[in-house]
Amino acid sequence: MPSTASGSAPAAASGEPRREAAALTGSAKLYRSAGDDITFSFDAHLAAKNNDDPLKATGTFEWSHYADGDGAWAKAEVDCLVTGGKVAVVSGVVTDSDLPGAKGTRVGITVHDTGGRDRLGYSWASTGNPVETKDLPKCVGSAPFEKVKKGTGDFTVVPWNPKF
Fold first, then answer.
1. Contact status, residue 60 vs residue 76, Cβ threshold 8 Å
2. What is the pLDDT of residues 73-110, one digit of tens each?
3. What would you report as the CA-atom Rg of the chain, rounded to the nearest whole angstrom?
4. 83 three-class SS
5. Are 6 and 25 in contact (CB under 8 A)?
6. CA separation, residue 15 to residues 19, 55, 157 (Å)
7. Which of 33, 43, 65, 97 minimizes the number of CB atoms within 10 Å of its CB?
């Protein structure tokens, strides 16, 4: 079902607009006082028909980190998306990267969409890089401790409303 970043979708049979079950979209640069160029972007979605299974989320996310001409980038295929309010946790398996050893590893990222200066955290925060994160379960990230560089963030989180 096609959808937009705001979560709207074609009208349901009842005439009311349907929305996807959850989403995380947008991009931003992280703030680093040393001037590192760090960018994250997301296009992750959980279709309304899959509301009861966040492991059926689809999409991609990618990031890059460069400092003084050195660094790497990676792209991951989404394998889980859980959102609550304005916080999203997305995980995925790296499908493409110039970081040796990164392909095939699972990573997780947490985003807090504050509506102002968003925040972000990543599963490799305590290991140093995504390659050193071993056996990460789906939908695991770290607290969103990083600040997005002022004026660069446009993350949008569509909150999940599971039926328990």
1. yes
2. 999 999 999 999 999 999 999 999 999 999 999 999 99
3. 16
4. strand
5. no
6. 12, 29, 24
7. 33
Q: Which of 37-51, 81-95, 122-136 has the lowest mean pLDDT?
A: 122-136
Helices (H) and strands (E) in the chain — how many of each? 0, 11
Contact 89, 139 (CB under 8 A): yes
Tokens of 92: 């995925």
Q: What is the mean pLDDT of the chain?
A: 89
The answer, yes or no, to whether residue 53 has pLDDT greater than 60, is yes
First to last CA, the chain: 24
**CA atoms of 110 and 19, how far apart (whole Å):** 22
**For residue 123, which of 104, 142, 95 has the smallest C-alpha distance?**
142
Q: What is the pTM of this model?
A: 0.86
